[in-house]
Amino acid sequence: MNTSAGYPVGQVAAFAGVTVRTLHHYDEIGLLSPSARSHAGHRRYSDADLDRLQQILFYRELGFPLEQVAALLDDPDADPREHLRRQHELLTARIGKLTEMADAVQRAMEARTMGINLTPEEKFEVFGDYDPDRHAEETRERWGNTDAYEQSQRRAASYTKEDWLRIKAEQEDWGARLVALRESGAPADGEAAMDLAEEHRRFIVDHYYDCTYEIHTGLAEMYLADPRFNAFYESIAPGTARYVHDAIVANARRAGA
Amino acid sequence: MNTSAGYPVGQVAAFAGVTVRTLHHYDEIGLLSPSARSHAGHRRYSDADLDRLQQILFYRELGFPLEQVAALLDDPDADPREHLRRQHELLTARIGKLTEMADAVQRAMEARTMGINLTPEEKFEVFGDYDPDRHAEETRERWGNTDAYEQSQRRAASYTKEDWLRIKAEQEDWGARLVALRESGAPADGEAAMDLAEEHRRFIVDHYYDCTYEIHTGLAEMYLADPRFNAFYESIAPGTARYVHDAIVANARRAGA
DNA sequence: CTCCGGCCTCACGCCACGTGAGGTGCAAGT
DNA sequence: ACTTGCACCTCACGTGGCGTGAGGCCGGAG
Description:
13 helices; homodimer; Globin-like; Multidrug-efflux Transporter Regulator, Chain: A, Domain 2; DNA-binding
């Protein structure tokens, strides 16, 4: 009765979202050899083969070279739960990294809006793929005392454009109104301050990216925590960073409720 | 004074966390040609070059082929905010995909703990890289009526191992105690039910992965929403899925407060 | 009986680099 | 003055993970 045992290669490819060639390749290198062949020499994949393929594609997606994938899957003292556990860890780690990158992009965007120049190291903070301590120390040690390094350390990055200046003007106008409001004695969680915070958010949305209230409060935290941004606001007038922070938080709360 | 203009290739490589060869390659293919050369023919990268490199690595990290990266970066009517906006979108999209994968792994782990067999399509739900509708329909249309497909549709996946059976026994013991508790009339948010929920969580932690309270409540939701898991619990006794859900939620609340 | 769709096996091509091999320029130590 | 050493240079071939035909086999439908 059960004349057909196992799935043919095309079907497996369709299931897994890969090409037939890929399956051939995995067979060639011995990573996934179908457990049987039909009379005509056609590959027949069993359910167990499909499971293995699923694992393979998973590790591949996370950037493992196929050779290592084979080593992982053929490890005799690694049972299914070992793999699931590891996969879960890898995924959360990966998500964490991407979230960090997203945060770094946020900071980069903010740096641009405010005209803060980043040092070369800061520019690549996004990619935390090297050991941070060792790298930072070593780099400073190796390059920290050369002329090129010292002299270009805080050089202007020359983002000079046309509408860039227009945006900056807008930004400064907002800053001026902020200072005026604060000097008038208006509270940070008052109507006017919240409106100004909302205007700030809209400003970002219009010119840069889709800044949600959640992201906006994240930025507010950064204005307090990150020395660069903190210094920027404090340079306007002492206490401004805190004031802006509170206004943004209040505004987000208003929008959320 | 300023005799040294620009960073040498080794320094740039160290900053960016790439090899010198990579920078040479980008120069060869015209993706990133340093804006100057020293007297001795050495590459000198300007700050603007570093910015471009940062962008390149960003898009590369997200899987773009270098040719497309060049196209994106050289696009004349794409200003900085365009890129930042796009990068932000790409990142959040990617994070979303990974989160989905993590969820799918959760389900796979749960399926294993309960001995539910997945159909071939279900096994690859993790990788949402094909158009779901078109794919699902088309696959069924093309393969749905072949013998191989029908007959192996719900075949046992033969996970038969030794300690796998032991775990299953543990699991069944837990199930029995759950049913007994519920029949005794104990409330789902009572002490005993919560203890049983906690035991369930510990069980997962010990045998599978680090299941936090947050994840655990996520699983509880799934027990209600996903037909497969729902059916599993309901097959024990009607209302069990809900009972388990409530117990887990109550337990998480207890732990959280 | 032919046609067609899916399968097969070579075998070469491609991208994004890795990895030497062999040579240059400069600065520091002997 | 001379070697040592380091960072840089330019070929140029190798590698991983497939893509992309070329040419042929096989079983069912028209």
